[in-house]
Amino acid sequence: MDLFYKSTRDSKVRATASQAILQGLSEDGGLFVPEQIPALGVELKELAEMTYQETAYAVMSRFLTDFTESELKDCIAKAYDSKFDLPEIAPLTKAEGAYYLELFHGATIAFKDMALSILPHLMTVSARKNQVKEEIVILTATSGDTGKAALAGFADVPGTRIIVFYPKDGVSPIQEKQMVTQKGDNTFVVGIRGNFDDAQSGVKAIFGDTVFKEELAEKGYRFSSANSINIGRLVPQIVYYVYAYARLFADGEIGENEPVNVVVPTGNFGNILAAYYAKQMGLPIEKLICASNDNKVLYDFFRTGCYDRNREFLLTSSPSMDILISSNLERLIYQLADQSDETARRLMKELAENGCYKITSAMEEKLKDFYGGYGSEEETAAAIRSVYEAVGYVIDTHTAVASCVYGKYKKETGDTAKTVIASTASPYKFTKSVMEALGESAAGTDDFELADRLATLSGVPVPQAVEEIRTAEALHNTVVNVDEMKQAVKRFLG
Ligand SMILES: *Cc1c(COP(=O)(O)O)cnc(C)c1O
User: Fold this and answer.
1) Structure confidence by residue, pLDDT tens digits, 273-284
2) Ligand 1 centroid to 230 CA: how many Å?
């Protein structure tokens, strides 16, 4: 059966999966959502025998119904190969009463690799299917990890260019170095004098600029997005929740259909939305625990039903979660409103105009699958220390937010269900904060020296992704003001 996608802001807009992937965002500013969430339709015993790649096919083929079997299998084979440093792709580590699902074994050591190593392949197949002749220009706003993962995925992919905007003072030194050393003639990296929300709003504004779009079309370019607003990012992220559940079952850690909780350190609400879709497909997930850092808009939302971004934007030790406008929440809102485009349109207008909105009590009722929590800077550091002291396992700052929130959740509810924590980055990406949390002085040392010390301390060797930027030369040095983003795009495209 064919699955179509519609816009959250206009139900009349209808697209195939490949069209939705090519477009990224709907023209009305809405996000593409599947008309219904397909059932998984595979027995757990079968899933338990599958490799990551086979699981990816089982899940993704339900969503991308206009891809042929060989097209999709080819994309999967090209994405989940030796770029990942373990054949399991996404291994589970049991520590302190939870299962850490390590999503950072790809080329750029953050979970963004899980989707961005396949997106370029989905995109080029989509272009071919829809007879797209223009060059595809990927415009991306990043809070640090998407940028590098997208650059690595799209570098030198024929028929594409990629432009990444990142907050100049809002990413970790390793994150910045990873991006500005990116090779590839089709890659452009730009720092902006602003925060992630500024970068994301700027990119969305360029997408919505129809005059600019026509101008570029004449020159042979069309835009698409590698952010998690693209359904081609979201669908590959559902896979690892199914895979993790099947692994736990195969390893005898859980019984058949035993409910588990999932904890996700959240920023743009993409990763946790993928877990929600996995649940809708029939995976026995009980609670979806949404963990925020001090930028706790989502925590407040789950508590009050009121989304309010009117607050100070804080820079934390988990920069990839420093976000006040969680774009993917729109997809959940739409679902909660029984797929009413009218409601989604109204609430998003309120958000754009007043910076806040409140959902109805009927919608709030349906939020009970979720639990919102947050971890302060001190609590996050304490979580890193406590897991390390208990079992010698070093987690990164984002994963630590989740670990801390899980601790609070258990204390508050007494829930003892088995729990998977999405481990979204390698500690090597946030070395300074991690070492400080472990009580190691970071003063006067650079990130690479610290990485060597972390290797001694954790027994985990310095990953290739860090080794390769140690001596690499910076190739990108453009920094612009927020209102100059469009100019920068024009300049790059000649
Ligand atoms: C992007 C990112 C997050 C947040 O994920 P969302 O899908 O935006 O909610 C959390 N941790 C790390 C390390 C990330 O890179």
Assistant:
1) 999 999 999 999
2) 15
